[in-house]
Amino acid sequence: MLRLLLLLPLLCAAGALPAPLLRRRRSPSLPVGPYQTRYLRQQIDHFGFDENGTFQQRYLVADQHWKKDNGPILFYTGNEGDIEWFCSNTGFMWDVAEELNAMLVFAEHRYYGESLPFGNESFSDSKHLNYLTSEQALADFAVLVEYLKTTIAGAKHSPVIAIGGSYGGMLAAWFRMKYPHVVVGALAASAPIWQFGDLVPCGTFFGIVTNDFKKSGKGCSESIRNSWNAINHLSSTDAGLQWLSNTFHLCSPLKTPQDAAVLKNWLSETWVNLAMVNYPYKADFLQPLPAWPIQEVCKFLKDPSLSDKLLLQNVFQAVNLYYNYTGAASCLDVSQTATKSLGETGWYYQACTEMVMPLCTDGVHDMFEPQKWDFDALSEECYRMWGVRPRLSWILSMYGGKNISSHSNIIFSNGGLDPWSAGGVTQNITDSLVAVVIPDGAHHLDLRSRNPLDPKSVQRARAMEICLMKEWIEKARHSH
User: Fold this and answer.
1) Taking 50 as the threshold, does the pLDDT of residue 134 lie above it?
2) Is 245 a catalytic residue?
3) Which parts of 293-434 fold into alpha helices (H)?
4) Contacts of 435 (CB under 8 A, 6+ apart)
5) Cut 0.85: pTM above it
6) Eight-state DSSP code of residue 411
């Protein structure tokens, strides 16, 4: 959703699309155990019979800690990106594999990474993109699990637990809901399954971002709120545009007010990214950052009453910490907050079809420029881009919205600092649909590797998650 990934509506455009929940900068080499890369031939269309083509789905397997006599399988439900990146950034699974005697499987989501149904033609038009849906992805996962259990000796009765974060967390929860005979439970971390329709207010997301900055330094959120008018004033003249370009060390100078709107969107996305990765230790997830990065950023944003130019010079210092903490960047590129990847193209199509998550700002309860949720404008933009119209309520019809009490064995974990918790499940629904809230946690902190600087709240959350997973595994064993 990390990023994650889809991040926020482009505030400069009325019909703008949400960016991926997780915006990836690159694929860092993180300390994970050895794994094997494998492929399974999947149907392009699981639900019809006219399109009979197939493609190779990539998945990763680590079985060094697996107890071969029906030991459990922890199954990562891949989301909008390269599966190796998610494998490297889901240290929790590696940390618990030995304790649970578990095999780890990381399954790549169709249309991302190497799992392209039509190869280089996969993104060519809406006809080729037609099979990019959450339903098709879940069917891939179900087929893959059944394949593993029938082809790996000793795995026939292995209990499988789905694990995912952000959009992957949504998929993990939905996997358990739709295929309860395939997975015995799910850990859905930072999964905004209720960020659809009118289930939650569209402005809560940006309110949480604002609160993160407000709590991290006096005058911080107010400085950001005042920065928009400062940019508007300066961008009204050619000299002002040149000053903005120089002050922000932009790789490409701003030439029009429309360029300034892109600058503002880039800044908005930066503030959201910081809220998502506001981790308690130095980390290299979306960018290399210090511990509690928002506190560091807010050290530059103490006085919201400064003149336009002084205020924006401080804003540059703040965003430079995010994009250039290592000091390696010679200029800042407002067209990129992450790597150029097919992941973004795929996600924008999903946001134009079924992943329609209303987001809005009012400039009063948040620090952003006012932007109403405008479904009609979104629909027109999607039609212009892809020739398709989004279906506003399909996800609610497909997965039940808030009416999910008939399901079982799902942990919904959310961080209090994470804006995506706005659409997450933060209270228990039943005894087996359990909410775990991590007040000091940003975007799926619990799925990251253990760290000496982890707050107590995430340590307790992981302990509870492990305890519940052990219960599911034991119950599944007794059923056989």
Assistant:
1) yes
2) no
3) 293-298, 308-323, 342-351, 375-386, 394-399
4) 412, 413, 414, 425, 426, 427, 428, 429
5) yes
6) E
Q: Phi first, then psi: what are they for 84, rounded to 5°? A: -65, -35
CA angle 338, 340, 346 (to 5 degrees): 100
Q: 185 vs 25, 86, 105, 383, 475, CA distance in Å?
A: 31, 20, 15, 38, 11
State how beta strands 54-62 and 36-43 pair: antiparallel
pLDDT score of 338: 52
Q: Is 65 a catalytic residue?
A: no
* Per-residue pLDDT reduced to its tens digit, 442-454: 999 999 999 999 9
Q: Which residue is associated with the tokens 């399974």?
A: 40
Instruction: Name the percent of the chain lying above pLDDT 70.
Output: 92
166 included as an active-site residue: yes
* Catalytic residue from among 122, 166, 190, 227: 166
Distances (CA, A) of 163 to 101, 130, 340, 374, 455: 16, 26, 26, 33, 22
**Which residue is catalytic, options 109, 407, 443, 444?**
443
- In the predicted structure, residue 19 carries a pLDDT above the cut 80: no
> Could you tell me which of 41, 105, 111, 57 has the C-alpha nearest to residue 81?
111
Written as one letter, the residue type at 131 is: Y
SS3 104: strand
Residue 178 near residue 77, CB atoms below 8 Å: no
> Is the C-alpha dihedral spanning 245, 251, 253, 256 positive or negative?
negative
Q: Tell me the C-alpha distance between 275 and 367, whole Å.
A: 13
Kindly state the tokens that stand for 417.
Answer: 């600092």
CA distance to 12, 214, 333, 478, per residue, from 261 (Å): 5, 24, 14, 60
Q: Is the dihedral of CA 85, 90, 91, 95 positive or negative?
A: negative
Give residue-wise pLDDT tens across range 305-334: 999 999 999 999 999 999 999 888 899 998
Catalytic residue among 418, 444, 454, 457: 418
Strand ranges (E), 96-221: 103-107, 160-165, 185-189
Give me the pLDDT at residue 25, please. 43
CA distance 263 to 258: 9
